[in-house]
Design brief:
three-stranded antiparallel sheet; 219 residues; eleven-stranded mixed sheet; mainly beta; 16 strands
Amino acid sequence: FPVTIGVQVGIGQGSPVASAALEVASTTQGFLMPRMTSAQGLAIVSPATGLMVYDTDLACRCVFAGTHWTFEYDLYTTAIQTSTSTTYANVTELVTASLEPGLYAVRLRGIAQSTATTTGFGLRLNVGTAAVSNVNINWCFSQAGAGTDKNFEYSQITTADNVTSASVITANANFPISGDGVVRVSTAGTLVIQIRTEVAGSGVSIRPDTTLIFRKVGN
């Protein structure tokens, strides 16, 4: 049953610090907040600003910001993700869980390779089961040489945009890829990263530890 205490509370700590209403101290255990699915979190009636829950679908902490839930949802590749087709194909390890409608800041940081120097590398954000009403992402592929050569930079403003670099300089060598922008999800569902090659049969790949981050910033 609910208990209201008009003094400071210490758990595992007899003298809580002066600025803390509640202090939990332990060297063998952690603090476990309420865990629930995305649907259960969205069903909370009149959530207080600052309310926190752990979303088990997104595997991240969510905070209610007064009008909407905010969170940072990360995906990491643990295996090499490849394509040998000139048609964009989904990267299976960078398919999101279902994202609720809202405005998301998007960031990708990773490493890619190509099996041939004549092969351009294509990468874009696309929909899985979601619907989006706005996309604006700037992509950068650092395949050019040092000095006066420039990176290959592209703007994606629709999910159908063909975002493809010029020829890769060194075959089977790592090169950085990055993307920054925003996307508005209008109907809940999944989003995906897709890759393609410019030359059929020549392989392009995203390497392990490539990271895709979605941060919900508004309704």
